[in-house]
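Below: protein 1.
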Amino acid sequence: MQISKAGEAVGAVVDDVDVTKLSDDQFAEIRAAFRDHGALFFRDQKLTPEAHIAFAQRWGPIDLNRFFKRREGYPEIAEVLKEADQQLNIGGGWHTDHSYDEAPAMGSILYALEIPPSGGDTLFAGMAAAYAALDDEMKARVENLQARHGNAHVFGEESEYRKAIGDRYTNADQAGQTAIHPVVLTHPESGVKGLYVNPGFTLEIVDMAPEESVALLRQLYEHIQQDRFHYRHKWSAGDLAMWDNRSTWHYALNDYQGHRRYLNRITIEGVALA
């Protein structure tokens, strides 16, 4: 097994390994790499749904996503699907999974089953590197702030995006959760500081005038969206990717109109953030 850095700010590639046959020592090494790099990419895996679930369970309890359509017979697995005749994809903007929950999901494990002949890459951004690159004035400004996150505008019954996605999302009546988290998160495992706001689910900075909140979030987003903090993963069928929702953003590019793209995702439970 070999682990090599994928991008300067985020991600590592794990080669020459079958995730269904990991020894305890190999798994410990992979877990340390996940903590250090925020995202891991495994090529040429051959996973049954049962094997996907078993690998996920080594990381912790599975979080049953209430909004994604689940794979038939496997409630642990959420389908990330875009048919050839559909226009909108799932995850087509920068976001962090489950930041609207009081205890956001630790990570997501995504397995590629069907990939278009071109396009459909996923971008990842590293939040620790983005925070470290802030100037001292901005670090001091955001240090003790909190932000409110929510999901109704994406998954709720009145969401135009959800209506356009159709039956690929479920349980619109269960949307409406909000949660407050620090803008600067001390990672619960690594202890490293990183930014914890995202364009997908962050609603506002708490106790800040709306126009100031909008301006500050825009400034932080523009900073994070610099290429130097990103890694772009080009998918092949059989790829397995996993990312830490506490230290990364991701963005599924929607540049493969007329082709089917189908992946399976399992999400791992996390802890309350401080």
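Below: protein 2.
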Amino acid sequence: MSLSDQSASSAISLITTSKWLLDSISEWCQHNPEWRLIHETLWTPQSEWPKEPQTDIRIVAFTPNDALSEHCLKASESAPKTIPTLGLVTHHDELWMKRLLRDLAMGYLTLEQGHDEFQHALSHIQMGHSYVPQYYAKALMEEHPTVATRLSDREKTIAKLLVSGINHRDIANQLHISEKTVSTHKNNILMRLELRHLPDLIRFHDKHPFAFKTKK
């Protein structure tokens, strides 16, 4: 690959609990030069979330309901939220799909989708769009509460940050607003969704993660 090709390719950070998934995605990147694997983490019980400098997109590859995957997902609480992330799972699990979309990922795929949709999902997510296969997204959209349409895109963004466990100060710094403005948005979000407390918002988001998709 030439230097110009390398500069045009997208840098991937891969974090997975499976050696064969790591090898498979690494091999896929070798045959698709527009995607460049620059960080590889094979998760162990002793692992901590890796540093991911110069990463354009992150892939997390899990086996749902596996103890090691649970450990990795818990550790992702410290992951930078600014890196677009695709959650890839070995098989579909509705609860895991919702957890990934709530806590970490902008997109969700299973191994059933194949290479073409995998590449399509990566491209979609890197442009800042959510991605879920149509037959999974349909179920999420059918659960869409109409009340969520009352939220602005800014409120949806703040709601997602709040349910991810980020405090008011860090949200304010990330969005370049004051902590008071964050608090005001939070109160408005709770009021418009007819909720009382942050735990209610977390439960609401668990049940309806796609309701918080923004237009951007």
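Strands lie at 10-16, 35-42, 57-62, 85-89, 107-110.
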